[in-house]
Design brief:
Keywords: DNA-binding, Transcription, Transcription regulation. By secondary structure, the chain is an all-alpha fold. It folds into 2 domains: 51 residues, Homeodomain-like (Arc Repressor Mutant, subunit A, Orthogonal Bundle); 154 residues, Tetracycline Repressor, domain 2. It contains 9 helices and no strands.
Length: 215
């Protein structure tokens, strides 16, 4: 959560916005519901602290889209590509699946955005996702070695990302098929599995590319 006094009206409104937007999406969430959740009777408080419901939502998206960089960029350039991949996977698993209601609600908003993108998504992609993807593409290119074209690099990025996001997107179905599975409590084990599985897949792709280039 952005650095601010967690007991302040602004902080309570921010947290309440995350919870209500997660439950209802941007369009169906109301200012009155957010203020009630924040335990403030003044329905003008959102305008006072954020400017509007729209700008509150944008600030929440800014927090969500910037969170990965806060967790993962430290020392990135000093890591080996294998260490970078492990750091990427661990950061995403913690961000998406830590046993924390605020984190879970933030992940739900992200899922809403993927299903029904708001007008803010393009700005978020340009500011956060595009530089992030460029770093990850460079990492996968190093992992795959010489001869890896853009398609192979991009497909590896998508394959790893798909594993990380699966529970968020498929949880309504998955939780009914496997009701005893607790993603919150298993996120560290899940990160280890995704890393091992991904390294195996990358090794297989690297071997295939090497054979192709030797033909």
């Amino acid at each position: 959560m952005p650095k601010q006094n967690e007991d302040s009206t602004r902080a309570r409104l921010f947290r309440a916005g995350v919870k209500i937007f997660a439950q209802k999406g941007y369009g169906d969430a109301t200012v009155r519901e957010i203020c009630k959740e924040a335990e403030t009777a003044n329905i003008n408080s959102i305008n006072y602290y954020f400017g509007s419901k729209e700008l509150l939502y944008r600030e929440i998206l800014e927090f969500i889209f910037s969170e990965y960089d806060k967790r993962n960029l430290q020392g990135w350039d000093q890591k080996t590509p294998e260490e970078q991949l492990k750091a990427m996977i661990v950061a995403y698993c913690r961000m998406l699946y830590e046993d924390n209601a605020f984190t879970s609600n933030a992940a739900a908003i992200f899922v809403h955005e993927m299903a029904r993108p708001s007008s803010f998504v393009e700005d978020m992609v340009d500011q956060y996702n595009r530089p992030e993807v460029e770093r990850h593409m460079q990492m996968f290119r190093r992992l795959l070695g010489e001869g890896a074209d853009d398609d192979a690099v991009r497909d590896c990025l998508v394959s790893v990302s798909g594993q990380l996001l699966y529970y968020s997107f498929a949880w309504p179905l998955f939780s009914r098929l496997f009701p005893d599975y607790d993603a919150d409590q298993r996120h560290e084990a899940w990160a280890e599995h995704v890393f091992a599985f991904s390294m195996g897949g990358i090794a297989a792709i690297r071997k295939r590319l090497k054979a192709k280039n030797e033909d």
